[in-house]
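Lecture notes, part 5. Sequence design as translation. It can be helpful to think of inverse folding as translation between two languages: the language of shapes and the language of residues. The source text, in structure tokens, appears below.
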């Protein structure tokens, strides 16, 4: 039985407010959870409730969401018994009463959903990942393949290149420990290389990626390849690449504005094809804009034999949008962000639908993270193929990596292997 739910305003990794909730059960079990916040957000995401008071945190305060936990959610849930996660989440969803969580805020609802989940795991005496596994009926646990930010542009950095992130994927490693050793070696070599080539310090973007002043997109890829080689590793064999294009941010009225050149949808697909053909890219995320639905099936057909066609802004972890993408054959992988829908139960429904379609799933953090590590348990519990946390350079990111290292050693969890498409170069 829930005794009390309490909300708090805390700061995320960018120094902006976010929400934390604490759940106390009647037997004295107590647990808390913090929710992340995105910078690159899809239009279909559930509403992250902000105060709008420009005199405080430039309007980004979360006191309204916190008050909703303390004054509206707690009075309804305190004294109630919930035997399953779905029962609690459904009460929260009904209490809000809107499609996009605009009354209570997805940040308030998700904080309560996660805090309850952690409290239930503690009460049962099981690791959080096993509790998450119970939600979807999974009992086989492996560590996901990490996809780790190396270089950043777009909204995560200074926009020196339009695309948002280039990530490295340690594909030859046999353990999480070995994976992170390889990534560290590449990151260190990249830091040294950009100092030599661009004469700049290793300044970091929102998620810890490096952000040198690339003169053209191809330099981003070439510098990544150079960094892998300088680390004594083989591009494509030991360490491959993943690309987060986030193309909605440079798309207007059918045109993709890449700075020095502009492309229509067909031209953008052609550009992506040329990159995938030239570099060992295993995954392309949001290669087209979130409302460019007509051309997503063309992109999927063009790229699917070489890499994952991953939907983030297109899908927003929303069942309706995933179902549309499945029907149109528009993607073959889901980037799962729980705060895009606002509760564990809704995220689980999105996950199941993607899996039923035969898709891979990458469980993802957000640009505004906290030191909370529940995301690692979620990726393990739900059998995520990959996890996208950010770089190795900030404690809000390393907290999740460290949780996986801990579970690898304590629970002897094996590492997944990347599932290669037939045409990967």
């Amino acid at each position: 039985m829930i005794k009390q739910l309490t909300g708090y305003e805390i700061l995320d990794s960018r120094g902006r407010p976010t929400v934390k909730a604490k759940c106390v059960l009647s037997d004295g079990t107590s647990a808390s959870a913090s929710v992340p916040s995105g910078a690159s957000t899809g239009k279909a995401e559930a509403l992250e409730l902000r105060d709008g008071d420009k005199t405080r945190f430039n309007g980004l305060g979360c006191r309204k969401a916190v008050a909703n936990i303390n004054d509206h959610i707690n009075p309804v849930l305190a004294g109630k018994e919930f035997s399953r996660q779905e029962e609690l989440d459904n009460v929260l969803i009904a209490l809000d009463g809107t499609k996009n969580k605009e009354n209570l805020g997805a940040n308030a609802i998700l904080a309560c959903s996660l805090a309850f989940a952690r409290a239930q795991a503690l009460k049962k005496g099981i690791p959080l990942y096993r509790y998450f596994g119970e939600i979807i009926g999974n009992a086989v646990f492996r560590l996901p393949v990490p996809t780790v930010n190396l270089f950043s542009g777009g909204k995560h950095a200074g926009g020196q290149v339009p695309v948002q992130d280039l990530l490295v994927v340690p594909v030859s490693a046999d353990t999480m420990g070995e994976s992170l050793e390889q990534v560290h070696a590449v990151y260190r070599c990249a830091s040294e290389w950009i100092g030599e080539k661009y004469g700049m310090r290793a300044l970091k973007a929102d998620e810890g990626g490096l952000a040198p002043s690339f003169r053209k997109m191809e330099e981003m890829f070439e510098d990544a390849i150079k960094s892998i080689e300088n680390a004594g590793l083989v591009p494509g064999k030991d360490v491959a690449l993943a690309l987060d294009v986030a193309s909605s941010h440079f798309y207007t009225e059918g045109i993709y504005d890449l700075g020095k050149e502009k492309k229509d949808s067909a031209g953008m697909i052609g550009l992506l094809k040329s990159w995938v053909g030239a570099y060992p890219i295993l995954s392309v995320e949001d290669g087209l804009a979130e409302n460019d639905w007509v051309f997503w099936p063309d992109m999927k057909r063009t790229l699917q034999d070489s890499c994952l066609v991953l939907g983030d802004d297109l899908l927003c972890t929303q069942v309706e949008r995933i179902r549309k993408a499945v029907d149109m054959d528009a993607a073959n992988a889901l980037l799962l962000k729980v705060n895009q829908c606002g509760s564990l139960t809704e995220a689980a429904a999105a996950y199941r639908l993607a899996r039923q379609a035969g898709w891979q799933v990458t469980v993802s953090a957000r640009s505004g993270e906290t030191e909370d590590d529940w995301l690692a348990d979620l990726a393990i519990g739900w059998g995520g193929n990959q996890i996208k946390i950010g770089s190795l350079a900030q404690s809000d990111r390393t907290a999740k990596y460290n949780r996986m290292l801990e579970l690898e050693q304590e629970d002897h969890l094996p590492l997944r292997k990347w599932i290669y498409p037939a045409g990967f170069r």
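The translated text above is only one of many valid answers, since several sequences can fold into similar shapes. The chain has a mean pLDDT of 94.
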